[in-house]
Amino acid sequence: MTPRRMDRRNDGRRGMGSNHGGRSARLLPRVSRRARRRVLRMLRRTARRSLRENLLTLRALAEFSLAEVVVRVLPLRRAARLLGVPLDLQGASGAVATDRDPPPLPPRAERRHQAVVRVARLWPFGRGPCLRESFVACRLLHRWNATTRLGIRRVGDELAAHAWVEVDGRPLRLSEEFHAFGTPSTAGVTQTPSPHRGSQQAHDIPAGIRISDQ
């Protein structure tokens, strides 16, 4: 085999590898150097935690990976059904007690919730991981009747969506603008929902709505 033919074969292999990488990127996009440093920092911190905390963190990490793939390839309602997550699209207007402090969780549930928060804080994929965090938290807190709630609000000419977790009708994590998220009708949305396969948005809400990380 001549050197020229070998070079051509190598070029072909490189091309095949790049195409395969492009297909994989649709599910899990490339991670920036800054995001990799954040993940490494989280891994170093595990040495200072107990074995039980580390096992919960690893479980939450696995759940985040599953949720990331499912959210990217399935519409919102189907993703929730596949993951076994109760989903409520009534926004804050449908919540039972939105103006009260987060409900106290039993120690076991609180440890699980903190593991989810740790991974969500450093999750390198996507912008605004509130939907992934909500799905994962509901899966780990299903014994305590956790529900994922999603609301929409208008920000100027744009629409933003936010997902959060509630236990007994009370959100686990509040934000200053929490009450602003309502139903599509309260946000003035009248268009028919359309799916966006492969995007990081909630797929059963109208096109053009971005996920906010309030």
TrEMBL record:
It holds the Pfam family Transglut_core3. Residues 1-14 have a biased composition (Basic and acidic residues). Residues 72-173 form the Microcin J25-processing protein McjB C-terminal domain. Residues 185-202 have a biased composition (Polar residues). Signal peptide: none annotated. Residues 1-30, 185-214 are annotated as: Disordered. InterPro entries: McjB-like, McjB_C. This is Lasso peptide biosynthesis B2 protein. It comes from Egibacter rhizosphaerae.
